[in-house]
């Protein structure tokens, strides 16, 4: 595997920074329709029933303990400045890997956030970085609870955790159900394919929108990351109506071409006759709106 990673793949990342749209959260309060924006990789900002949530807000330059020596974010920058974000009611974290939990992002966000909701054990990182323990909740799989007018559930995933050589699986990993009056959403976090998706769908579906892992896969770690065709099946298993693929479009963490995940998932989705939305980074998506973004913007990056 190390030899494979040392080989040069000319298509492992875009040749120029990817196109983004400026994030317009300052205008989101003009109507009550649920909406979100994908911020690259698995980071999402969501407004639902007047509550603002950030999901896995990794806003750093590189998903590594040594970002200076790591390959950087495709876009080069974010479609917004963290300082310009409005107050955030809830941050949901799926697990503690560097591409989902970023020290610099948490430090800059912590004074804007009312509540951090995390799987078991992850609070120790946040507390060490200066987050008030009173503002953190930890949850186990299948916990259900109310938060800021929403109904949330911590649900299973097939993955692992750890930020060093000595803490593997010391904390829990999960997916999340976010249910409001106006929409019901599923956020997969990182996961290999398994029967837990059907269990989640049977208990909490159908979902108006799913945010499903799609990218950073390989046969050698197929148990912890889905292939795009499995992503489509997982969406069907949880009884999703519309899917936005995540966990791609920001970093190179596997050996495949950077566009391989989105091309394969769109093709598999078409074969299964499901709606897949492909917004640009930063683009506002109106959940349950009349239309969803479907333009193949990534193809313009390789012309």
UniProtKB/TrEMBL annotation:
It catalyses: 3',5'-cyclic UMP + H2O = UMP + H(+); 3',5'-cyclic CMP + H2O = CMP + H(+). Pfam families: Lactamase_B_2. Residues 52-248 form the Metallo-beta-lactamase domain. It comes from the Bacteria. GO terms for molecular function: N-acylphosphatidylethanolamine-specific phospholipase D activity; zinc ion binding. GO terms for cellular component: cytoplasm. Counteracts the endogenous Pycsar antiviral defense system. Phosphodiesterase that enables metal-dependent hydrolysis of host cyclic nucleotide Pycsar defense signals such as cCMP and cUMP. PANTHER family: N-ACYL-PHOSPHATIDYLETHANOLAMINE-HYDROLYZING PHOSPHOLIPASE D. This is Membrane protein.
